[in-house]
């Protein structure tokens, strides 16, 4: 059973509801737009992984290479069906208890819930040995290591759970332990003395959710934070000239896209979706809003996803005249107000988005105008990010704008299978299914031949480019504003961690 949001209050009491202590001069204050809406790893507990409070069985380095996490090493049988993960003998939870194989088995078993990516793996059994975890597969599955690094598989101590099985406290095994917890806005952490790794220069840190991008910028400029995520492009341009701030950036495998309900009577025709794509001036959006024309998306998977980005695909282009011609072919003609009509129906739809990523409402406004020029009346509704999956589930969604990270684990198969396999996920297509994609997703994990695997990925990309159940708008560059006194600042391209452990104070 997943932990309800109501459990947050009791979880906070389990740690403390007193105001977090002020950071020492060597503490690091992290701010971002994301709230801690749940403690459960299957819902929203990723912030604990990012702040290095919790660990997973497998970790990844910045180059996308699997490295030890709670597993010291692993082996796989010749038939690729049995994986054995030998555990680190010195791993301890923050309550002083040893990390046992049974604890990891419990975490992985729980992570096989439909809400977690591990549900996509064809696992026959997960068993505990004295000093190892054994995973047996029904068939070979090459992305297994990547899925085992996902935040939904983070391992919590038995003391983290209440009698009802819900997460009531966060007792992890990472280099930092929870010091204060005040969901949904903030929590603070302190170095764990039982940590087995390198000596930590940053002994304490805190995370604070700050909703407005302008406020986050003011806080980093005013010395009220050391690391600030989620800043808008205009603010970043200003911060680059501030001697008290250092801006870091890295292109990540995330795409800002327009989710289209292909089951909607106005949007079911692929010609309409292609027309909407042609109506978008992606280069203009990327230049004016993101300040980088190279981020204009020519296909769903960005170049930062090698093996999935296909340079041979005909790129998505901007042509309002061609868009209008496709709409006419689909039976739509302009009304007196310039908005398309088909019979008694007027082509008016609502586009949902949210301000957690500050550029999204601005991009939505640009899309609104560009689709109006093609004859489509779009109403922009800015709400909570949760509005999109809720509207997906109840069938009321027409259009949604959001940024999807296809590298949430280093093998993009996890996100692709979650979005396009079976009935599709909340952040994938709606009212649309392609047998060719389902077949390729089923075949890909067991494919050993690299050329055949590339062919299958190419088939998936080609169908998505033609059918456009998700319309790519722009690719993504992750940015971070940091205090220049901090050395070794880096951005994880897979957004798994804020990389606090390598940080050093330069003065």
3D structure, described in words:
This protein has 507 residues and is of the alpha+beta class. The chain has 14 helices and 21 strands. The chain has helices at 7-15, 46-50, 101-111, 144-147, 213-221, 233-239, 270-279, 282-288, 320-329, 359-373, 387-394, 413-420, 435-443, 450-467, and strands at residues 28-32, 58-60, 66-68, 71-76, 82-87, 123-128, 132-137, 176-182, 186-191, 204-209, 227-229, 246-260, 333-334, 340-342, 345-346, 348-353, 377-382, 399-405, 470-482, 486-487, 504-505. Strand 2 and strand 3 form a beta hairpin. GO terms for molecular function: peptide transmembrane transporter activity.
Tell me briefly what this model is:
GO terms for molecular function: peptide transmembrane transporter activity. This protein is of the alpha+beta class and 507 residues long. The protein has helices at residues 7-15, 46-50, 101-111, 144-147, 213-221, 233-239, 270-279, 282-288, 320-329, 359-373, 387-394, 413-420, 435-443, 450-467, and strands at residues 28-32, 58-60, 66-68, 71-76, 82-87, 123-128, 132-137, 176-182, 186-191, 204-209, 227-229, 246-260, 333-334, 340-342, 345-346, 348-353, 377-382, 399-405, 470-482, 486-487, 504-505.
């Amino acid at each position: 059973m997943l932990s309800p949001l109501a459990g947050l209050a009791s979880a906070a009491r389990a740690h403390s509801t007193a105001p977090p202590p002020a950071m020492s001069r060597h503490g690091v204050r992290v701010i971002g737009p994301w709230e801690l809406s749940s403690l459960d790893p299957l819902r929203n507990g990723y912030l604990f992984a990012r702040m290095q409070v919790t660990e997973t069985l497998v970790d990844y380095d910045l180059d996308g290479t699997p490295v030890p996490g709670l597993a010291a090493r692993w082996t796989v049988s010749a038939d690729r069906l049995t994986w054995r993960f030998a555990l680190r003998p010195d791993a301890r939870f923050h309550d002083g208890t040893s990390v046992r194989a049974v604890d990891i088995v419990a975490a992985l078993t729980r992570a096989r819930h439909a809400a977690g990516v591990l549900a996509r793996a064809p696992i026959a059994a997960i068993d505990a040995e004295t000093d190892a975890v054994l995973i047996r597969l029904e068939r070979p599955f090459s992305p297994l290591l990547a899925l085992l690094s996902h935040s939904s598989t983070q391992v919590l101590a038995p003391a983290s759970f209440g009698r009802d099985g819900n997460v009531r406290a966060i007792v992890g095994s990472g280099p930092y332990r929870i010091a204060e917890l005040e969901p949904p806005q903030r929590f603070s952490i302190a170095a764990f003395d039982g940590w087995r790794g390198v000596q930590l220069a940053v002994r304490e840190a805190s995370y604070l959710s700050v909703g407005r991008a302008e406020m986050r910028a003011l806080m980093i400029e005013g010395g009220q934070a050391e690391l600030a995520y989620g800043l808008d492009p205009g603010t970043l341009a200003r911060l680059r000239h501030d001697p008290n701030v250092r801006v870091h950036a890295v292109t990540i495998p995330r795409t800002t896209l327009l989710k289209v309900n292909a089951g909607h009577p106005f949007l079911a025709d692929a010609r309409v979706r292609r027309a909407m794509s042609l109506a978008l001036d992606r280069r203009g959006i990327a230049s004016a809003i993101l300040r980088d024309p190279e981020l204009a998306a020519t296909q769903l998977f960005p170049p930062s996803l090698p093996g999935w980005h296909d340079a041979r695909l005909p790129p998505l282009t901007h042509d309002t005249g061609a868009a209008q011609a496709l709409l006419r072919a689909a039976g739509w003609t302009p009304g007196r107000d310039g908005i398309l009509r088909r019979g008694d129906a007027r082509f008016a739809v609502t586009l949902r988005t949210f301000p957690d990523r500050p550029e999204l409402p601005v991009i939505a406004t640009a899309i609104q105008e560009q689709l109006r020029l093609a004859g489509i009346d779009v109403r922009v509704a800015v709400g909570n990010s949760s509005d999109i999956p809720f509207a997906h589930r109840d069938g009321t969604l027409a259009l949604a704008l959001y940024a999807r990270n296809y590298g949430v684990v280093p093998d993009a198969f996890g996100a692709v299978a979650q979005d396009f396999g079976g009935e599709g996920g909340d952040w994938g297509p709606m009212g649309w299914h392609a047998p060719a994609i389902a077949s390729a997703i089923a075949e890909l994990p067991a494919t050993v031949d690299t050329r055949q695997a590339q062919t299958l990925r190419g088939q998936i990309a080609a169908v998505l480019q033609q059918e456009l159940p998700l319309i790519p708008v722009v690719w993504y560059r992750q940015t971070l504003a940091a205090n220049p006194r901090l050395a070794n600042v880096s951005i994880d391209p897979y957004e798994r961690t804020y990389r606090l452990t390598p940080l050093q104070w330069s003065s």
